[in-house]
Write a structure and sequence with these properties.
Number of strands: 25
Largest sheet: 7 strands, antiparallel
Shape: globular
Strand content: 25-35%
Distance between the termini: 67 Å
Structural class: alpha+beta
CATH topology of the largest domain: Trna Endonuclease, Chain: A, domain 1
Number of domains: 4
Length: 518
């Protein structure tokens, strides 16, 4: 393969691999959710440059091959002659199927012994990792139940070889498994609650989510399991206010646009309707229907000790500094985005398919009244950073109703089983900061008197792409969370049109209604 063909192959693959991990020497070298890359086909060589906050690497690409969801590169390190391999894996769990099955099989007897040790007088009846597509149960989660007389508890565990995202998704399976057990055993057993078991040191997000569940619907219990020591430590779910989170100060968008007026004018000469989004006081983003294709930022020149305006461009994790030499490539990228990224664009093109949720966010932000007439359109924030522990999250849209009540809007362009609990994550963080008066303090909704009511939670998705388990999960949420599911038309790229709305039936407890024992 020629350097040019290698460059094109890499660019095409990585354009649609936004959250891929890069494997080198058997370990994860880079995570493209946080890292950046650039590809160069100059001087008759194909070079790939990868960098993050932790490390930096340049490799010469000799050959490339796509195997399933993995791009395998034969590369050469600088100053070395012996080739090595660099794997870009779309599937973040890069273990072989055999390794996954082995880890899951070994986990079952360990968890069984631990449960029998910590739940005296209870009998573990069943544990399984069998796939059940009808009920959305996959092999990553060990499911079962245990009983003591006529009492029973549902069990869901996840082993320490699974990815953090898989561990964080365990509670969704837990709620669905609890509900399925109750339906299956209602004539024989009283399924009082759910025992969640996650690896030691990984349960922070699950703990925060379980604190937002309906306390009268089930007995909720969380354990962190140290598999090496066979020790289970119970997490405290009683303190619902124990949420370690911080908010980023609201950005002065007008000041940022003035600061980067030269870059804004330069890009809008090519694409007059380019979206301009302030990311910080020193960084601004340029987008086409939610697709980011460039950023302008203040860069420090080590020679002159001055800060200069710098433009970088690329899609996804790709990043190149704009220079005189690559300005034609920059203009071509903007024109390509404009030609593809519109409602009648080619649906099979990677740029049309990329980042659909950001496209949906862009459409809804521009047409907020069409989503809900209660929402004010004068002041709305998108992609609001909110941090909890080591988790850096982005609230899709934070808005306000006409009477000053906050509205947390979580978006999904495609079917996603985790939509309800992800929405709860953001709702709980906003509720925390609101209760401490920090939204006004950090510059959000200036000049407005916000209501003391808890925020609304709006879960928005195309009507035919709302996961069928959503209703079940929502029934188990705390009654303090005033949620609403909004199904919009499939042609949302043309217009935002609400097809249906679902709200909670207050006063109802998920059947069967139980008196929870201590």
């Amino acid at each position: 393969m020629t350097p040019d063909s290698l460059s094109r192959m890499l660019s095409d693959f990585l354009m649609t691999a936004r959250a891929a991990v890069v494997i080198e020497d058997g370990g994860i070298a880079f995570d493209l959710a946080d890292a950046k890359y650039s590809i160069s086909g100059e001087t008759h060589k194909c070079l790939i440059h990868l960098w993050s906050n932790d490390r930096n690497a340049v490799r010469r690409v000799l050959d490339a091959e796509v195997k399933g969801t993995t791009l395998r590169l034969q590369v050469q390190k600088m100053g070395q002659t012996r080739p090595t391999h660099l794997d870009f894996c779309r599937d973040r769990d890069h273990r072989s199927p055999a390794a996954r099955r082995s880890a899951r099989a070994a986990y079952e007897p360990r968890l069984r012994r631990a449960l029998e040790k910590y739940f005296h007088g209870w009998t573990v009846v069943r544990l399984t990792t069998s796939t059940d597509l009808e009920h959305s149960f996959g092999p990553a989660y060990l499911r079962g139940w245990m009983r003591q007389g006529q009492r029973a508890l549902a069990i869901v565990g996840v082993n320490n070889q699974e990815s953090q995202s898989t561990i964080d998704g365990a509670l969704t399976t837990g709620i669905l498994w609890l509900d399925a057990c109750r339906l299956a055993q209602q004539a024989r057993q009283s399924i009082e609650g759910l025992v969640m078991v996650v690896p030691d040191g990984t349960g922070t997000l699950t703990q925060q989510r379980m604190a937002q569940l309906h306390p009268a619907a089930a007995k909720w219990t969380l354990y962190e399991f140290d598999q090496s020591e066979n020790v289970m430590n119970q997490s405290d779910l009683s303190d619902r206010g124990n949420l370690a989170t911080r908010l980023v100060h609201s950005i002065d968008t007008a000041a940022s646009r003035i600061r980067f007026a030269q870059s804004v004018a330069r890009i809008r000469q090519i694409l007059p309707l380019a979206e301009v989004v302030a990311l910080s006081t020193a960084e601004i983003s340029f987008r086409c229907h939610g697709l980011e294709f460039a950023q302008a930022r203040m860069a420090h020149d080590p020679l002159t000790f001055q800060s200069n305006e710098e433009v970088i461009f690329g899609v996804g994790a790709e990043e190149r500094v704009l220079t005189v030499g690559n300005e034609p490539d920059f203009a071509d990228l903007i024109r390509l985005a404009a030609a593809v990224r519109h409602k009648n664009g080619p649906k099979n093109h990677p740029l049309w398919r990329k980042d659909p949720e950001r496209w949906l966010e862009s459409s809804i932000t521009a047409n907020l009244a069409a989503l809900d007439g209660r929402l004010r359109t004068e002041c709305v924030y998108s992609q609001v950073p909110a941090f909890a522990a080591a988790d850096r999250a982005m609230i899709d849209i934070l808005g306000e109703t006409q009477d000053g009540r906050l509205a947390v809007i979580e978006l999904k362009a495609d079917e996603d089983i985790h939509l309800p609990l992800q929405g709860v994550d953001y709702w709980s963080r906003v509720n925390w900061h609101q209760g401490r008066g920090e939204l006004s303090k950090f510059g959000y909704f200036p000049g407005r008197q916000l209501s003391s009511e808890k925020p609304l939670l709006m879960l928005v998705a195309p009507a035919l792409h709302v996961h069928p388990t959503t209703d079940t999960i929502l029934r188990y949420l705390s009654p303090e969370i005033d949620w609403e599911v909004i199904g919009i038309g499939e042609s949302w790229r043309e217009e935002i049109k609400v097809i249906f709305r679902k709200k909670p039936l207050r006063g109802k407890v998920p059947p069967p209604q139980l008196a929870i024992s201590a």
